[in-house]
Amino acid sequence: MSYASYVIAAYAVFATVLLWDFVAPRIRIAQIMRAVRMLARREAARGTAATAAPELKR
């Protein structure tokens, strides 16, 4: 009896999980960084609009 198919499948599952454990946090970090950049842009635009408004009233 040969366990070659079992061993190959086990290594394939292990490699897949190991790869996912490597990639998943990087995907999440990229999503969070994108959200932070978008928030910073919105805050900067809001701050610019707020400071520009008093100048327009003069």
TrEMBL record:
Residue spans crossing the bilayer: 6-24
Keyword Transmembrane tagged: yes
Membrane topology: Single-pass membrane protein
Lineage: superkingdom: Bacteria
Keyword Transferase: no
A Pfam family the protein falls into: CcmD
InterPro entries xrefs: Haem_export_protD_CcmD
Keywords: Cell inner membrane, Cell membrane, Cytochrome c-type biogenesis, Membrane, Transmembrane, Transmembrane helix, Transport
Xref: NCBIfam families: cytochro_ccmD
Family designation: Belongs to the CcmD/CycX/HelD family.
Protein name in the entry: Heme exporter protein D
